[in-house]
Specification:
Length: 488
């Protein structure tokens, strides 16, 4: 175990707390100091130090009287897309500035009920639309792996959560993933990110982006920590009719270290043009590592993969345009002035939303409009069914699928802001998983030639997070990825 409390895994911290090596208050104080030191990264929109210390002291009392719960005293950060009662929730947008929810999202409520401590709300792409955290109204987040002269993006949209965990500002964090927003920033920041099966966790109280794709999940330093957080946040919620009523397995118990006989699918369509050789090689190494551990790689085909990005960039904006219709200046956040109600709506939305969000609303409104609905939206829904069908067929031949997480390592801030399509290409390996509603996990597996982290992705059958976690833990042991960003 390391002496630096900010570098512990959640599992190590739980041991230290139980063994009285330190208190929950010590642990939280150490995180609050790290957050202060790392403020230049801009990982947090709101810090909740006072609340964190109150929660930590309550945890210490429960640890002392033997009533500690699963995540007792563990300090975590929360993406600013989760409504937190009494704490400003902005979704990274100007339009929600000053919005203080009168209720708590189910997933965050589950964390606090398990004894976790909230450190603050993390920065993110506006309404979770982005892959670099640059669309945030609160400014970009800097990847802790950046060199002093070239600030890099941490990935997005959960960029603040990823940077916070990678920089030692939180032991774990909550993110959301609509097309890759947990896995892609995890990959670019050298940590583990898990998107559960659609319906595994409640979406209640999460600011909606694309309701048929959104899912909450953990960003952590280890696979075991992802299992520990998932354990607490997963489960049926009567308040979300898309959350599924099935038992939550013991995820930590799934980490047996044994993948002998497991069939690992390698999809040929993921060898995309222009993918750097080092990523192709890392993927190959991943295959060999799993083979050496006794798993059996099998070649599979996911033939509709080339249509996943265009499908996603129709379905997601369509749902977003409808979800974001509620921000009209009347009920939430900011209101601009206007001589007529119509003018007030237009001014509020024009000033409140940033450029990427306005682009998505326009695309979404267009593809849903009479005359274009059949040609775009309906067609995209049909292709989506085909993409899901590809996975069903593939999983008849394999138990888990291995791919790269992203087609590149972290890129410099500003490198792709003028080319939305180049930005969207970041999601090429992650969006099919959301379209099919499957669980997916990114694990740090190596470093690029420039010394930046690269991730591998594991994709599982619906509700089979256990196999994904089990396989990831074996890769984690094999890669023994210990590289860390320099202290800032
Ligand atoms: N980068 C993707 C987008 O911009 C995915 C975002 C997400 O998963 N929230 O839509």
């Amino acid at each position: 175990m390391t002496d630096d409390l900010t570098r512990l895994s959640i599992a190590e911290a739980l041991d230290g707390l139980t063994g009285k090596a330190f208190t929950a208050e010590d642990l939280t104080q150490a995180q609050l100091r790290a957050m202060e030191r790392r403020r230049p990264l801009n990982a947090f929109i709101t810090e909740t130090a006072e609340q964190a210390l109150l929660q930590a002291r309550a945890s210490d009392r429960r640890i002392a009287d033997g009533s500690a719960r699963r995540l007792e005293g563990i300090p975590v950060a929360v993406k600013d897309l989760f409504c937190t009662q009494g704490v400003q929730t902005t979704a990274g947008s100007g339009i929600l500035h000053g919005f203080v929810p009168p209720y708590e999202s189910t997933v965050t409520q589950n964390l606090w009920q398990a004894g976790a401590v909230m450190l603050g709300k993390t920065n993110m792409d506006e309404f979770a639309m982005g892959s670099s955290n640059e669309s945030s109204r609160f400014g970009p987040v800097i990847n802790p792996w950046s060199s002093p002269d070239t600030p890099l993006v941490p990935g997005g949209s959960s960029g603040g959560s990823a940077a916070a965990v990678a920089a030692g500002c939180a032991l774990g964090a909550l993110g959301t993933d609509t097309g890759g927003s947990i896995r892609q920033p995890a990959s670019l920041s050298g940590i583990v990110g898990l998107k559960p099966t659609y319906g595994r966790c409640s979406r209640w109280g999460i600011v909606a982006f694309a309701s048929s794709l959104d899912q909450a999940g953990p960003l952590t330093r280890t696979v075991r920590d992802a299992a520990l957080m998932l354990q607490v946040i997963a489960g049926h919620d009567p308040k979300d009719s898309t959350s599924v009523d099935r038992p939550v397995p013991d995820y930590a118990a799934a980490l047996t270290g044994d993948v002998r006989g497991l069939k690992v699918g390698i999809p040929k369509e993921y060898r995309v043009d222009g993918m750097p050789l080092e990523i192709e090689m890392l993927w190959q190494k991943g295959v060999e590592w799993l083979r050496a551990a006794g798993a059996e790689p099998v070649d599979i085909s996911l033939p509709h993969t080339p249509y996943a990005l265009p499908t996603y960039y129709i379905v997601a904006p369509a749902e977003a345009s409808s979800n974001l219709a509620r921000y009209d200046g009347v009920r939430f956040g900011v209101r601009a002035s206007g001589d007529t109600p119509k003018e007030m709506y237009a001014n509020t939305r024009g000033q409140g939303f940033g450029i990427e969000v306005r682009r998505r609303i326009m695309i979404g409104t267009y593809v849903l409009s009479a005359g274009y609905y059949d040609a775009y939206y309906l067609r995209a829904q049909k292709v989506r069914t085909k993409i899901a069908g590809d996975f069903t067929e593939a999983f008849a031949r394999c138990d888990v699928i291995l791919t790269p997480t992203t087609p590149s390592a972290a890129f410099p801030i500003g490198a792709k802001t003028n080319d939305p399509v180049a930005m969207y290409l970041n999601d090429v390996f992650t969006v099919p998983v959301n379209l099919a509603g499957l669980p997916g996990l990114s694990i740090p597996a190596g470093l690029s030639g420039e010394g930046l982290p690269l991730g591998l992705q594991l994709i599982g059958r619906p509700f089979d997070e256990e196999t994904v976690l089990r396989t990831a833990a074996v890769l984690e042991t094999t890669t023994d990825f210990r590289a860390r960003p320099a202290e800032g």
